[in-house]
Amino acid sequence: MMLGQGPDIGEMVLHHTADAWTIDLEPITTIHLPRWADIHIGGMTLNLSPTKHVVYLIFAAALVFLTMWLAGRSLRRQRAGEKSPKGFAAAMEGVVLFVRNDIAIANIGADGAKFAPFVMALFFFVLYANLLGLLPWGASPTGNLAVTAALAILVFLTVEIAGMTKLGFKGYMGTIFPHAPGMHGPAAVGFSLFMAPIEILGKLVKPFALAVRLFGNMTAGHFVILSLFGIIFLFGDIKGWNWAIGGVTALLVVGIMMLELIVAFLQAYVFALLSAVFIGLMQHEH
Amino acid sequence: MYSVLLASSEGAAGAPMSPFEVNTGLIFWTWLVFIALYFLLKKYAWPAILTVTVQREETIRRQLEEAEQAHAKAAALLAEQQKLLGESRTQAQSILAEAKSASDRERAAAVLKTREEQDQLLARARREIAAEGEKARQELRREAVDLSLAAASKLIGERLSSDADKKIVLDYLSTLESSH
Question: What is the ipTM of this complex?
Answer without folding.
Answer: 0.89
